[in-house]
Structure formats: structure tokens, C-alpha cells
Amino acid sequence: MSEGAVSLPWIVIRQDDNGNRYRVARYATRAEAQKTADSLGGQGREQLYWVERIGQNGDGGQN
Q1: Whether pLDDT at 58 is above 70
Q2: Is a pLDDT exceeding 80 seen at residue 57?
Q3: Which residues have CB under 8 Å from 36's CB, separation 6+?
Q4: Which superkingdom is the protein from (predicted)?
């Protein structure tokens, strides 16, 4: 990572009623990401929201 670059390894994922998954946002800390996932998930919709850490190879999987 270059000097001054910001690392945003935590992502919020949304899954809709049809099983489609989307990246909603990226965050520097798990706490920030979880706060967003909790607030979006509490809106009474049937979509699911969760937090994942982006792996070293850039995928959404956990390390």
C-alpha cells in the first residue's frame, strides 16, 4: 500500500429476496461496517445485510 492510502478491508453485503448479492459500502473497521449493516437490516425489509473482510487477493472471503 502506498503512503497516504486508506485501507478499507471491511465490506457490507446485501442479499435481496432473489438471492442476488451486492457490495453496499467499504469501511476501515469492522465496528463501522457492522453499525451500517445493523441500521440497514433493521428497516423491516426482507433483505439481509452482513459484514465481511476482504481477503488478501481482493475477494470478499474471510482470511
Answers
A1: no
A2: no
A3: 12, 24, 25, 27, 49
A4: Bacteria
Q: Length of the chain in residues, anyone?
A: 63
Q: What is the DSSP string of the chain?
A: --TTPPP--EEEEEE-TTS-EEEEEEESSHHHHHHHHHHHHTTS-S-EEEEEEPPTTSSSS--
Per residue in 18-47, pLDDT (tens digit) is 999 999 999 999 999 999 999 998 766 678
Residues 40 and 7: their CA atoms lie apart, in Å, by 23
Global pTM exceeds 0.90: no
- Report d(CA 46, CA 59) in Å as an integer: 25
Please give the backbone phi and psi of residue 31, each rounded to the nearest 5 degrees, phi first: -60, -45
